[in-house]
Write a structure and sequence with these properties.
Layout lengths: L9 H12 L9 H5 L3 H17 L18 H16 L3 E5 L4 H7 L7 E5 L2 H7 L5 E5 L7 H15 L8 E7 L8 E8 H6 L1
Parallel strand pairs: 1-2, 1-4, 2-3
Antiparallel strand pairs: 4-5
Amino acid sequence: MHDPKPAATRAEVCDVANAVFDGTDAVMLSAETASGQYPDKAVEAMHRVCLEAEAHFRVRGPAQWRSETDFQHIDEAIAMATMYAANHLKVKAIASLTVSGSTPLHMSRPSSGIPIFALTPHEKTCTRVSLFRGVTPLTFPMETTDHFALNRAVIDEFLRLGLVTSDDDLVILTKGDLEGVRGGTNAMKIVRVGDVRSR
């Protein structure tokens, strides 16, 4: 058994960097790294490697997104259609109204660089989606089932947070027709901020 050292080995650095390049949502310590003498330094080193690797991460193009297999669920198809449209329309942000977080999970796979926001009233879902690459959780009450009122509430929240700033900004919203159904996302809507605000 080798002596524990406060510096990461080349193999350890490569493992963490490759995890980022592979699109992994999160990395963690294990075995002797987690229980050794330098867990704080290990986390700091892992953080630095992740930041550096993400700075050089190449975004996969739409042609590489699951082109070889069929979708198993409707929410997965909606998620991939959303990412494809977002990349071709220069969408400012994506709002995924979600119960379980499965739709933003599918959206996080292509690693497009477009900000994805998971809007949910559930604290557990907020915690879960915080581990997904490129997905930011937002606590959102979903107090209405009226489609336009919901769109307006989302846009108002995005404006309040400074996520959109211009009437010309485009936002994609995904949601399900049935409130509270896990994996029930079955709709994608592309909205222009000014069009929603003017009604």
